[in-house]
Amino acid sequence: MYYSNELSQTNKNISGRRKLMLDKIVIVGNGIAALAAIKAIREVDEDSEIHLFGEEAFYPYNRVRLSKGLLSILQEDKILLQKREWYDDNNVNLYVGSKIVSIDTDKKVVKLFDDGLISYTKLLLAGGSSNNKPSIDGIDKSGVYTLRTLQDAWDIMDGLKTCQTVLIIGGGVQGLETAWVLTQMDIKVILANNSDRLMRKQLDDKSSKILENKVAEKGVKILFNANVSEILGSDKVEGFKLSSGETYECDAVIYSIGTSPNIDLLKGAPINTNRGVIVNERMETNVEGIYAAGDIAEYNGNIFGLWNIAIEQGKVAGYNIAGKDTKYKYVPPVTTLNAFNLSLFSMGIVDESKVTDTLVEENMEENTYKKILIKDKYVKGAIVIGNIRLSPALKSAIEKKTSLEGIDYKNMPIDDLIQVLKTK
Amino acid sequence: MALILFCENNFSQGTEEVVNKLRDEDYDVEVESCLGFCGDCAVGPYALVDDEFIQADTPDDLYEMIKDYLDN
After folding, report:
1. Partner-chain residue, chosen from A32, A78, A338, that has the shortest CB–CB distance to B40
2. Considering the entire predicted model, what is its pTM?
């Protein structure tokens, strides 16, 4: 495969005073950050060439749907981010099954898996991240899975057909969502969590306990402070061993212990990286004309790996690529979980030691919990479990930095406070 | 008038038809690129009405729930 490294489109403006050369924009990665960027570019510029490269064999799809959709038959067409005709309609050249393996910033070309070369005038790195693989003896045995791609989801559903007990490594959102799906399939689940509570980053002790109770109620065996040291079995998974020495039987293992940005293709390129590709508030890298957004981008030392942040970053990158000067505005991270017959919302700061006031209402019997964290009269964080109906108002208050000045918030029910916030 | 927000990522749950119906009835409807409720967005249709989260099993149910909210 060879792609011309000559710009195929040039244009002269009508006045003839200057030559206008259309950009040839190459986008590496076809997830939500890439699509958000394309929408932003096309708002400003309908004519530049856009070449969108994705490693997977599928049209861009909604990755968030994978863990929730395992119970149903996941079909590509049902989880697409955009209809197939959207790419033609928006003058986008989409290449699926086309991994970019390296970048030559001097020649301004990217190299494909098959040695094909693609030239660019502007480049967006939006290749996302990959699931971290635990360093455990036996992790390459048959019957060990992780969920990142649609193909992974199909492999898991195929592989679990004959399984009775599955070990899930990781007690974060994806691990819990997967556990929830498996319990509904009457598969026995053991969840190995390396800390002392579930969703440690997003929940405090009490809310985590509510979640733990609901998870355990469904028969999931939770192992806290558990370090899996070995996957047992000859070729195929037959069990696992903890560093404490205990052993358990299981037929399969699914790990979800976090992600790392896909920066391998930058080896040898003069693009600054740390854990991810370092970007400024315009989502520019240190190399002119090269941008990054989404799970691959590191902004102010942060890599969030969250959908709404990837969209915002993609949008900012897209506008700047198209010449519309735009700066990234910090989007506070939000986590929502809908599993184990529980609705959960967590946003912003959840560590009490970082705020000045905390409001809490809890009912452990009914599994409901509301906590608002306030610093200097501003809502900085919130956790809601149970009825999350009013949580968007908390989200707005955090995002809009609504002042609590003049509100007697310490002496009113949380729902009343939220109603007051809605009027602000 | 109440502001009704939809997430375009939630359209795959059938909410685009709810948007169209409400717009035909002249309600104040906006579609955002992401509302940040991704965990819920992936499991069913939802909307934010006046900063309240409304979730349903089907798009028709969502439409009815939004109408109920607006009428009360």
Report:
1. A338
2. 0.90
- H helix or E strand, kind and range, residue B67: helix B59-71
Contact A308, A295 (CB under 8 A): no
Q: How far is CA A154 from the centre of its chain?
A: 20
For helices A173-184 and A205-217, what crossing angle results, to 10°? 20
- Across the range A375-385, mean pLDDT stands at 96
Range(s) of the domain holding residue B52: 3-71
Chain B residues with CB under 8 Å of A177 CB are 39
CB-based contact B33 A69, cutoff 8 Å: no
Q: Which residue among A65, A306, A311 sits closest to B42, beta carbon to beta carbon?
A: A65
Chain A contact present for B52, CB below 8 A: yes
- Which residues pair with residue A383 across a beta bridge? A346, A371
Which of B6, B53, B65, B66 to mutate: most A Cβ within 10 Å?
Answer: B53
Flag if B50 and A337 touch (Cβ within 8 Å).
no
φ, ψ (nearest 5 deg) of residue B22: -70, -35
DSSP 8-state assignment for residue A15: T
Chain A with chain B: Cβ pairs closer than 8 A: 72
Token pair in block for residue A139 = 């992790």
By the 8 A CB rule, do A83 and A249 touch? no
Strand order of the β-sheet with A92-95 is: A92-95, A49-53, A24-28, A122-125, A290-292
Among residues A335, A144, A109, the alpha carbon closest in space to that of A228 is found at A144
Asked whether A131 and A259 are in contact (CB, 8 A), the reply is yes
pLDDT at A164: 97
Q: How distant is the alpha carbon of residue A204 from its chain centre? A: 22
- Rounded to whole angstroms, how far apart are CA atoms A61 and A72? 16
Q: How many domains is chain B built from? A: 1
In this prediction, residue A64 carries a pLDDT of: 86
Asked if B52's CB is within 8 angstroms of A389's CB, the reply is yes
**pLDDT at res. A332:** 83
Confidence label for A72 from pLDDT (cuts 50, 70 and 90): confident
pLDDT digits (tens, 9 = 90+) for A102-151: 999 999 999 999 999 999 999 999 999 999 999 999 999 999 999 999 99
